[in-house]
Design brief:
It contains nine helices and 14 strands. The chain is of the alpha/beta class. The chain has two domains: 116 residues, Rossmann fold (3-Layer(aba) Sandwich); 104 residues, Arc Repressor Mutant, subunit A. The strands form four sheets. A five-stranded parallel β-sheet has the order 2-1-3-6-7, sandwiched between helices. Strands 8-9-10-11 form a four-stranded antiparallel β-sheet, with no helix packed on it. Strands 12-14-13 form a three-stranded antiparallel β-sheet. Helix 6 crosses helix 8. The chain starts with 5 loop residues before the first strand and ends with a helix. Bound molecules: calcium ion (CA). Calcium ion binds next to strand 4.
């Protein structure tokens, strides 16, 4: 099973939302659904999706304004899907920070192709390092699979993102605020607490003994560190 790429769909039309959701789940994406701008904003902050699909005409506000709010905190690709087909509407949305614009009616194939293009833009590093392997931990970045001692581990998309961030920085202490910015795109009062909860979840899944971790070490009051290769041999 792939670890899933997180797509947030913000669309008030239930029928369209369901069509998109079904198509994206078939393509093995994880989906979050929001029917209002407020709900969409909350989910974007909580889960920092890989891609956001956004309708502009929402019951509690305009999608263009939401693009601006999200852009202040996150650089997640935002693909607008809207019935507004005037050039000015497209320019306004793109100027506000949208990455792409699809007019309704759309085909599911087109939406999927635009999502793939957006993902290629944000993940150019994948081609360079396909596989990570160290001390029983195995990660296939192409397939987004994680194995520990040859056993498949199922991480949520956010847990996966956190693990990959640590693995890409072996031996370095990553501070709480750095991790929060990289994984969620912002920090606030609840960030440290949220990070502790997520780290505990990852450790339960990948460490044999969470009190004596093999992979991720806590630097008390500072952050976390992935055990480097040379250090691993000494332990
Ligand atoms: Ca709408």
């Amino acid at each position: 099973m792939s670890q899933g790429t997180y797509i947030l769909i913000i669309e008030d039309d239930k029928g369209i939302r369901e069509i998109l959701e079904a198509a994206l789940r078939r393509a093995e994406y994880s989906c979050d659904l929001a029917g209002t701008a407020a709900e969409g904003y909350t989910l974007a902050r909580a889960n920092n999706p890989d891609v956001i699909l956004l309708d502009l005409g929402l019951p509690d506000g305009d999608g263009v304004e939401l693009i601006g709010r999200i852009r202040k905190e996150q650089d997640t690709p935002i693909l607008v899907i809207s019935a507004r087909e005037q050039e000015e509407d497209k320019i306004e949305a793109l100027d506000a920070g949208a990455d792409d614009y699809i007019t309704k009616p759309f085909t599911v194939g087109e939406v999927q192709a635009r999502i793939r293009a957006a993902l290629r833009r944000i993940r150019p590093q994948i081609a360079r390092h396909d596989i990570f392997e160290q001390g029983g931990l195995y990660i296939d970045f192409q397939k987004r699979r994680v194995l520990v001692d040859e056993k498949e581990i199922h991480l949520t998309p956010l847990e996966y993102r956190l693990l990959v961030l640590l693995v890409h920085n072996p031996g370095k202490v990553l501070t709480h605020s750095y991790i929060n910015k990289e994984v969620w795109g912002y920090t606030d009062d609840e960030s440290s607490q949220r990070l502790r909860v997520f780290m505990a979840g990852i450790r339960r899944k990948i460490e044999k003994d969470t009190a004596n971790p093999r992979y991720i070490l806590t630097e008390v009051g500072v952050g976390y560190r992935f055990v480097g290769e040379e250090e691993k041999e000494k332990r």
